[in-house]
């Protein structure tokens, strides 16, 4: 969390609730997209051009080193000296990004919503998240210092295209120039991210990630051996005729099956109360990534 200095805190106390929203949005765009225009404010909040100008001027007064104006492009860009005025919680921000809620309003903290969830051990650095999101939105390559279990810490050039919540931790889906393949990188294992100027090649882009673009149908049922009252499980998952039919990206199949503890054996042979679901069409997932973590699946 970034603490606000007392001088900034006093200035924000005199600012209206609506204007705090707009100031937070300005910062959110600078931090996660890297740029914004006055028209972004006008369209997002349906305010006049003069109001948008006042908001930008006030933000510049609060944080003069955070943005530069490019008169040719008519855009405000994040500077190298950028330091947030508002607090940005990593968990809340990732949820907002995942659900296309991009107003950055979690920065203000004037409202405490009566919603809670089990705590996560895995909390990514918000500045790492911001750089990765910027790179994705602006189609850029990034250099990362990444620590893996097999090779320790080293620099990698990757082309990210998506951020994924696998239920336990956040991953970045990216083309890895070191291995010339699309892979998942754990966000918390990135200790440094630098956005590079070079534009990715076509074969490094999201459209060429076949595991990402391939959709696999899953037919999931209440476990035939471990569940005494299958109707209860059908109600839990909104099943129709006691079957849940969904499509999921091949790159994410293993994560989902492990998260839900779906028995992937052909004969539903896994025992234990944790296995309340069974994958009826297990053959359909052949060739998908991360199947080593799918309960009971054998290639």
- Please give the CATH architecture of the largest domain: Orthogonal Bundle
Treating each run of at least 4 consecutive H or I residues as one helix, how many helices? 9
Whole-Å distance between the termini?
45 Å
Order of helices and strands: HHEHHEEHHEEEEEHEHEHEE
How many structural domains? 3
Arithmetic mean pLDDT:
87
Sheet with the most strands: spatial strand order:
7-6-5-4-8
Low confidence ranges: 102-115
Superfamily (CATH H level) name of the largest domain: F-112 protein-like
> Percent of residues in beta strands?
15-25%
Gyration radius from CA atoms, angstroms: 23 Å
Number of strands: 12
Global shape? elongated
What is the CATH third-level topology name of the largest domain?
Answer: Arc Repressor Mutant, subunit A
Q: What percent of the residues sit in helical stretches (DSSP H or I)?
A: 25-40%
Query: For this structure, what is the CATH class of the largest domain?
Result: Mainly Alpha
Global structural class: alpha+beta
The main pleated sheet reads as: 5 strands, antiparallel
